[in-house]
Amino acid sequence: MTKHESWHPEAFLQNRYTRAYRALVERALSENRVCATGVYDEHHIVPKSFYRSYCDDGWLDGDWHAPNNRVLLTHQEHARAHIWLSRRMTKGLAKRKMATSTRFYLDALKATGKSYRLCSRAMAEILGDHARAMIDTHADPIFKEKHRTACVIAHADPVVKTKRRQAAKRRADEPGFVDDFVERMTSKEIAQKRQAAWERQSTRESHRQGVIAALADPTVKARQRERTKEAVNQPEIKARRKAAQKVMSDPCIYHWQHKDGRTFVGTRWELEEREGLKPCRLLHLTMTNGHRRETVLGWSMIRHAEGEL
User: Fold this and answer.
1) Is residue 285 exposed (0-12), middle (13-18) or buried (19+ Cβ within 10 Å)?
2) CB 86 within 8 A of CB 99
3) If you placed Cys at 256, which of 106, 150, 264, 269 could pair as Cys (CB 3.0 to 4.6 Å)?
């Protein structure tokens, strides 16, 4: 290798880091390393995301998994190679791809407890490059559509649904998780965001379609039936049902007044029949001096026919 000899100019910038990367690869190849679990990682010399055969936005032709494009590196050499590729050897789309790849690999090393040397400034630059890459990627309409389609397919997979339920249960069992979650969900900021989202027509339509699809699912129907059976046996629910039945069988005559000034004298059910209301449309119920005060779609009970409430 001569000092200024170009090496994969279609993929890398030609500088001293590219030459150091080439020397690292050639030294690893010359040692005839053998793949062993926990000792070496397989590394693609030219990143596989640069190839059209691997992803749609690639620009190189050929086989990304060809033997001459693979080398075995130790985890420290592998980390160094990714850092060079993302920080010094690429630009544009290639830099965004390598920033994401480097972030994922360094996170994987951290999760497995393997060490690597990297100063805080370099790590901050990698995290910044990765964040900018994510912003640029998610702003791409083609990526948005592909991501949405992939999420729909994944969320419909029974295996994925089971894993998500298990993960949610594990989180719910963690000490303090429920309290923290309730505190976040009831905060003023979340309430404002939820209100702003609900005011959008697309949100309401998406919610409606989701409810229709859920109610058509036999599994959801069975779960609803089970929950209903459990609920009706609770003492509080039984007491509320008993109170509702007492209200429905009330034969007393009351004086009613509408918010527009109209008045009516009769039972609640006569009022509903006169106004063409559906039965049991009780929107508000309060107690005053032991008496019930109702509001039915604009009609308010003002006094008993035989005396003031």
Assistant:
1) middle
2) yes
3) 264
> How many Å separate Cα 170 from the centre of its chain?
17
- Tens of pLDDT along 33-79? 887 666 888 999 999 999 999 988 889 999 999 999 999 999 999 99
Alpha-carbon distances, residue 184 vs 8, 21, 171, 174, 178 (angstroms): 51, 47, 15, 16, 10
pLDDT tens across 202-239, in order? 888 888 888 888 888 888 888 888 888 888 788 887 77
Q: Strands 299-304 and 254-258, how do they pair?
A: antiparallel
pTM here?
A: 0.51
Show contacts of 128-137: CB within 8 Å, 24+ apart.
129/86, 129/87, 129/95, 129/96, 129/99, 130/99, 130/100, 130/102, 130/103, 132/96, 132/99, 133/95, 133/96, 133/97, 133/99, 133/100, 134/100, 136/96, 137/96, 137/100
290 has a pLDDT exceeding 50: no
Q: What are the strands, taking DSSP E only, across the chain?
A: 41-44, 70-73, 254-258, 263-266, 284-288, 291-296, 299-304, 307-308
Amino acid at 220: V
Integer Cα distance of 86 and 101 in angstroms: 8
Residues in the chain: 309
CA distance 37 to 172: 36
